[in-house]
């Protein structure tokens, strides 16, 4: 049970980091693209 909870938390954090990383890169590549979501 705890292992599934830890996996869920780690997956959420990793996906959040990946989204922020992709958003930062697309923002630097296309300044007139989508607004940054904080």
UniProtKB/TrEMBL annotation:
The keyword Signal applies. Residues 1-22 form the signal peptide. Keywords: Signal. PROSITE patterns: PROKAR_LIPOPROTEIN. This is Lipoprotein. It comes from Sphingomonas xinjiangensis.
